[in-house]
Specification:
This is TetR/AcrR family transcriptional regulator. By secondary structure, this protein is mainly α. It has 9 helices and no strands. The termini are far apart.
């Protein structure tokens, strides 16, 4: 990695940290680019070299977090077993939501629900679609349309996670929610992929 790449990474990391810190104390619509620059100790021109605006930063932060979830290390045993791989993916996703619950609630409740949900939805949809496509290439047959199947599972998963995030009592543990989601997704897979 060259010196330029390292500076870019340090700047982006500083901006992401500033963004996270500011969201803990300020509503998203009240955060300005100048606020981000002040907390990250960078110039506005530096911010604009990396991002178009704070919405671009939000999208980037969400995508980065989801990529970390998706690429979380999966053991060789899990890679060969669909249910274990699904459990690990759902566990990573729910753990991320749990660890960042206050920020997620804050961002979603302040007119960013559509933007954040769309980013998460696309990621989950792609994961379901690609895994199902891999199963089909391995000889399995899907008895319904792949796009409809993927949209249905992604939409259901996102809805469950959002409702769980906002549940005032939030009595269900990560493990409980994970086992319910995995059971539903596994049932859909067994019913339609043979």
């Amino acid at each position: 990695m060259n010196k330029q790449d390292l500076r870019v990474l340090k700047t982006q990391k500083a901006l992401m940290q500033a963004f996270t810190d500011l969201l803990k104390t300020k509503e998203f619509d009240r955060i300005t680019v100048q606020d981000l620059c002040d907390v990250a100790f960078i110039q506005r021109s530096t911010f604009y070299r990396h991002y178009n605006d704070k919405y671009h930063l939000l999208a980037s932060a969400t995508k980065t977090a989801l990529e970390h979830i998706k690429q979380a290390q999966i053991s060789e045993q899990h890679a060969q077993n669909h249910r274990l791989r699904l459990e690990q993916y759902i566990d990573n996703l729910l753990t991320f939501v749990c660890e960042n619950k206050a920020i997620i609630q804050h961002v979603i409740s302040h007119n960013l629900h559509d933007e954040v949900t769309t980013i998460i939805y696309k990621q989950v949809y792609q994961t379901v679609y690609q895994q199902t496509l891999a199963d089909m290439r391995a000889g399995k047959q899907l008895d319904i349309n792949l796009n409809i199947y993927s949209h249905f599972l992604a939409g259901g998963l996102i809805s469950i996670i959002i409702n769980w995030t906002y549940a005032s009592d939030n009595l269900q543990s990560v493990e409980s929610v994970k086992s319910n989601i995995v059971a539903l997704m596994d049932s859909a897979r067994k019913a339609h992929l043979k």
